Amino acid sequence: MQFGTGTTIRSFDEYRRWLTEADAIGFDMLTCGDSQSLWAECFTMMTFAAMLTERPNLAITVSNPMTRHPAVVASACASVQQIANGRFRYGMSSGDSALRNIGVSPATVAELEACTHAVRELTAGRSVDWNGATLGLHWLEDPTPVPVWLAAEGPRTQRLAGRLADGVVLSNCLTKERLDVAMENIAAGAAETGRNVDDIEIWHMCNLIFAPSEEDGINLIPSVLAGTANHVFRFTLEGKGLPEEMKARVRGLMGEYQSRHHAQPGGANPNNELIDKWGLRDYLARQGTIAGPPAHCVERLHEVESYGVQNIVVSQFVSDQYTWMRTFADDVLPAFR
């Protein structure tokens, strides 16, 4: 099993310290997201990380096609790829908090497909047609293609990922039932273009919380669970393995979710109350969270490994990330090395 991890930052001095610690621990991949109104700019973060590390892969796990032109995205990706010596990956989805916070509508599946194709081709040194114009990175002399991933939660985007993407980022798929649905969709998409699903790199998002008990750990991140549900189910509830009796509850949660506070755990976050108000705590926690004492977390990680999960991005939604990383290094990572 490979492990990635990421953080959100407001200070690059602090990010320097975080990168040094995460690199020394031995994470296989270091990640960030793209939500310009909530934390520092993602390509700047990846450039910084590429210059301060040499071993781990780097990834923007979730960006979107709507806040940047594909030629701008591709040029940024190709630049980071040069600095990172081929270690960089770029992930997209239709867009969530980055768009909600500036009043922009999410991308359609067709727009997501077009941007994925464009970025892959441009970073490989090829030209593409875009809205009647021919795009190319004319400065790129020795291209190293950038793998493009899709964060895919529904059947249409999962099939698209299977058809086209180099990798897939899955959320809320740490149960066998949800994972089986997702893999069926990805495999169906891969079959449409004669691809082998085994050639597609698949990563799972996981809230890994060390605490005296599983309940104590879940109590630390109720707003994170609400945010993941709001993202995963925002377009449709169908085709995602959601039990029928949960659908009205999920709609209620999404109707009250406040994107201005997305991915910001803490006592003042108004989204904290939503998972209990709508009776979704147990269901949502099981889909994407592993919490409790380190030994219990290792057991749960081995459990999801038995379902076929090979790559996990463990989120650091904790107040003391350095203690969390040292616990991970001492008590979790040795069980998988």
Account of the 3D structure:
There is one protein chain. By secondary structure, the protein is an alpha/beta fold. The chain has 2 domains: 258 residues, Luciferase-like domain (TIM Barrel, Alpha-Beta Barrel), CATH 3.20.20.30; 77 residues, no CATH class. Helix content is 45%, strand content 16%. The strands form 2 sheets. Strands 1-2-3-4-7-8-9-11 form an 8-stranded parallel β-barrel, surrounded by 5 helices. Strands 5-6 form a two-stranded antiparallel ribbon. Helix 6 links the parallel strand 7 and strand 8. The model has no long low-confidence stretch (mean pLDDT 94).
Any low-confidence stretches, pLDDT <50, length ≥5? none
CATH topology-level name of the largest domain: TIM Barrel
Strand content: 15-25%
> What structural category characterises the helix and strand content?
alpha/beta
The domain tally reads 2
State the helical fraction.
40-55%
Biggest β-sheet: strands ordered side by side in the sheet: 1-2-3-4-7-8-9-11
Please report the total strand number as a whole number. Answer: 11
State the order of secondary-structure elements, H for helix, E for strand: EHEHEHEHHEEEHEHEHHHHHEHEH
Summarize the structure.
The chain is of the alpha/beta class and 337 residues long. The chain has helices at residues 12-25, 42-52, 70-84, 97-100, 109-123, 155-164, 176-192, 214-219, 222-232, 247-256, 274-277, 281-288, 294-306, 321-332, and strands at 2-6, 29-33, 57-63, 88-92, 128-130, 133-135, 148-151, 167-170, 201-210, 289-292, 311-315.
